[in-house]
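Is this the right way to post structure tokens for a design question? Let me know if I should format differently. Anyway, here goes:
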């Protein structure tokens, strides 16, 4: 039997008495009490929430902002408008199924749709890195314009800035959007209540795995395409069934787990999932098993979660499945009175596990 390693073996050729140097070592998970900004603060998980709660909300005290919805719904001359903004720093700029340009349009259009709003206008601000190929920028802009046309919105204002070489990844984009909320629609993160049925509009985890496949050079036996798409039409089809949709949320950064936890805490309800009902494609499940990831924490860019009163859930589900963007929609759980503010999942073995917020992000710079 081999002799166990000693500290001297680990030190190798170090002089006796020298202590090993830990300089340059990194922790795979960001520290929660970090005094400086780290990548985990932008991941949509617990660290992002703490940054918003302790830094931004106290500084920008506003009732609409405090709701922490995907967009703010504001009263304006007797009507209501939804207003949202988002920044996109995805790497690489082009990926299977999309690029940063159409992602920027779809992301903001979908944030407006999660308030039930019909998106009308977008702004587009570009931060370009010195040395970036102009034809590459042009390709992004063309894809962005085509996505706006598909989503039925107009890009009506914008801005361009350039930063020095080495201070960016070619192209960053910020978009802001304005839409109109129909009368009688009141969709908010705090409206979930016990008895509500939780519906997902389709396969989860696809966008994150698509980005990872090209960024890390991984092959999963088949090409994985991002699910980036506008969801306004799907929401309109759901609202045609009932305007009493309680909550809508597109589970982007942090995935389904983050969105459900935020809704549970905002509404003060418990959420119980059935893992066997989760529509996780085989390629995503295999990739996550290989990489040690939880599909519930992997980002999506063309899916929504809906919290619907039980008596209308079947009709809403049928309307979703009849729409191209919701053909794989599925009921995945319900709101319960137990464990308020928490999300749990029943496993295939009949056990239960807590579905918690990720601390940071499994794959940074994903949108």
């Amino acid at each position: 039997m081999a002799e166990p390693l000693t500290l001297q073996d680990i030190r190798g050729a170090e002089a006796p008495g020298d202590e090993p140097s830990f300089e340059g070592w990194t922790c795979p998970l960001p520290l929660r009490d970090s005094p400086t900004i780290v990548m985990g603060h932008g991941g949509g998980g617990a660290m992002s929430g703490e940054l918003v709660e302790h830094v931004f909300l106290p500084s920008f005290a506003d009732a609409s902002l405090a709701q922490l919805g995907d967009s703010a719904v504001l009263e304006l001359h007797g009507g209501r408008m939804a207003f949202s903004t988002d920044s996109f720093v995805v790497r690489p700029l082009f990926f299977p199924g999309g690029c940063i340009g159409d992602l920027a349009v779809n992301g903001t259009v979908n944030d407006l749709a999660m308030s039930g709003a019909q998106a009308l206008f977008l702004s587009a601000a570009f931060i370009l890195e010195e040395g970036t190929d102009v034809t590459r920028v042009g390709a992004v802009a063309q894809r962005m314009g085509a996505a706006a046309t598909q989503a039925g919105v107009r890009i009506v204002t914008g801005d361009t800035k350039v930063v020095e070489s080495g201070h960016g990844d070619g192209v960053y984009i910020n978009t802001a959007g304005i839409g109109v909320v129909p009368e009688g629609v009141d969709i908010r993160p705090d409206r979930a209540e016990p008895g509500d049925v939780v519906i997902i509009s389709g396969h989860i985890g696809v966008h994150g795995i698509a980005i990872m496949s090209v960024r890390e050079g991984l092959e999963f036996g088949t090409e994985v395409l991002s699910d980036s798409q506008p969801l306004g039409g799907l929401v309109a089809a759901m609202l045609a069934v009932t305007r009493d949709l309680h909550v809508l949320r597109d589970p982007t950064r942090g995935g389904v787990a983050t969105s459900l936890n935020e809704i549970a805490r905002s509404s003060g309800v418990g959420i119980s999932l059935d893992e066997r009902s989760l529509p996780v494609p085989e390629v995503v499940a295999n990739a996550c098993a290989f990489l040690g990831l939880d599909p519930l924490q992997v980002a999506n860019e063309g899916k929504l979660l809906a919290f619907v009163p039980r008596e209308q859930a079947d009709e809403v589900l049928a309307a979703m499945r009849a729409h191209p963007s919701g053909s794989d929609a599925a009921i995945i759980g319900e709101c319960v009175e137990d464990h308020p503010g928490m999300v749990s999942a029943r496993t295939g073995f009949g056990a239960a596990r807590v579905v918690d917020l990720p601390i940071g992000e499994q794959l940074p710079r994903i949108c």
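Format looks fine. Someone answered above. Worth noting: The domain at 197-354 is CATH 3.90.650.10 (Phosphoribosyl-aminoimidazole Synthetase; Chain A, domain 2). Confidence is low (pLDDT under 50) at residues 1-28.
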